[in-house]
Amino acid sequence: MSQPLLSKCQPPDKTGRIQNITPENANWDYVGFEVYQLTSGQTLSLASQDKELCLVLISGLANIETQEQYFGTIGQRMSPFEKTPPYSVYLPQNDTATIVAQTELELAVCQAPGCNGGLQARLIAPTDVGIEHRGKGRNQRLVHNILPETEPADSLLVVEVYTKEGDTSSYPSHKHDTSSATETYLEETYYHRLNPEQGFCMQRVYTDDRSLDEAMAVYNRDVVKVPRGYHPVAMLAGYDGYYLNVMAGPIRQWKFTWEADHQWINSDQYPQN
């Protein structure tokens, strides 16, 4: 494996950062992703420069101010497993944000290239987030569409997903690693949370020719990078899962291809009992 796909959670650095995925260290072109764990009263300053950012409050409350907007105190859930949609802030390129934690704060910073220059910073409130229930049988999930392709952005697609113990998600296996009429090239990160926290889940990343074939035991606050290939997730008994997905590529559309062997899971043949 030339580039590790699993990024383990690190102790907070002086800024509170526990995850730091960049295009350079991921060996790709579009997606950047950071997570910060801030204590109450701690301040974090961010500059978007040539990127656009989506700041997702995974848990906790914060005051957030940009160059032209003051959003006051936002946030409502103290754990992602409350399963209410999060508060988020979209930050365009060439903007700054000052975040002051009002409680313990877990903040995800989703990044991708900015290009239009005409967008403004905005609040994405829980009422702006689309809620979906997908799948059937032991292949179900709850989805919060934070920044889907129907909402303004240059490159970013951001979604969070809940999977119950013993269930699968991002399944049947699908991929989005080519540019064609039926598929778009999108790099992707998975930021995992487990409940209870000592649990783990399994994620596999693999291609049709198996030139890439990695199976990983993923623990709380780990990140899995998906540069190409299929990428299903399986939860183990006793542990519910949450993951925050960030996707970006040259075209801001989510078009994917199912793996032929497992597409029958979508049909009336499943579940069989």
UniProtKB/TrEMBL annotation:
InterPro entries: Deoxy-glucuronate_isom_IolB (IPR024203), KduI/IolB_isomerase (IPR021120), RmlC-like_jellyroll (IPR014710), RmlC_Cupin_sf (IPR011051)
Annotated GO biological process: inositol catabolic process
SUPFAM superfamilies linked to this entry: RmlC-like cupins
UniProt xrefs under Pfam families: KduI
Annotated GO MF terms: glucuronate isomerase activity
Gene3D superfamilies: Jelly Rolls
Entry keyword set: Isomerase
Top-level taxon of origin: Bacteria
NCBIfam families: myo_inos_iolB
Identification of the protein by name: 5-deoxyglucuronate isomerase
Species of the source: Celerinatantimonas diazotrophica
Classification of source organism: Bacteria, Pseudomonadati, Pseudomonadota, Gammaproteobacteria, Celerinatantimonadaceae
